[in-house]
Amino acid sequence: MPEQLLARMTIPTLQARKAAGEKIVALTAYDYPTAEILDRLGVDLILVGDSVAMVVLGRDNTVSLTVDELLHHLKPVARAARKALVIADMPFLSFRLSPEDALRNAGRFIQEGGAGGVKIEGASPARLEVVRRFVEAEIPVLGHIGLTPQSILRQGQFKVQGGEAEEGARIVREAEALEEAGVFAIVLECIPLEVAAEITARLSIPTIGIGAGISCDGQILVFHDLVGCSRGYLPKFVRKYAEMDLLIGDAVAGYGDEVRSGNFPDDGHSYHLKPEALLRFRAVLKDRPACPAKTKP
Ligand code: KIV
Prior knowledge:
Helices cover 44% and strands 13% of the residues. By secondary structure, the protein is an alpha/beta fold.
């Protein structure tokens, strides 16, 4: 395979996509086989999102996820991804205690987890300080504004952000502040298309939208939403490209039916002793009758 096709996605290459007008394709992954498929199919950026808490671990929100839990999912993804840029989503408490603690946790995602950068939700002054610390320490940061799922306890529900003029303008200012602090790109989640378009036009770094319309420089979705195997409510911005829950349902039902009816496993899915070994096996056992308690009457 030509070297160029094997080259890993770098931050400068990703950023150059914006100037070239080439869209960035991003998805979440939380395990080796999924990351291997996404990587093979040319996904540019794989996010090991804290959405793993809801999508895979069955929790109601993302705030309980720990650094060790995220690391557990990050490692196999980083192992599988040979070309894609792998980003670790910093869990709720991992960057809120102090900038030093945040840096230590981000360092673990890079050193132990194999990530090529981290994502942080929000753009408060304290958050910008954390971003600056990371950038100074050479840790690439992906920003995330608009709907920030880690704000669920304060906000009470997941809903579109920036729907009013002032709020929309605030999100634009947050994006500009994040660019100034040094993030390499920004995720815009669940904001009106017009606000996302304004941000995308103003910034020189790429915007990656999820529920933020067509103008963003790239798009990201949660993998399980895309393939149709996530639980419960699906937001309006999700387009399902497959019905994997139906496929899995058919496979499991077929297996169950064949196990119950005695049609699985058949001869083709079984191992056999070679004829000579079978003769000897029977001969050995002839001298050792089955335990009476286990002999059928
Ligand atoms: O955790 C996640 O999956 C995310 C994406 C929705 C951007 O933050």
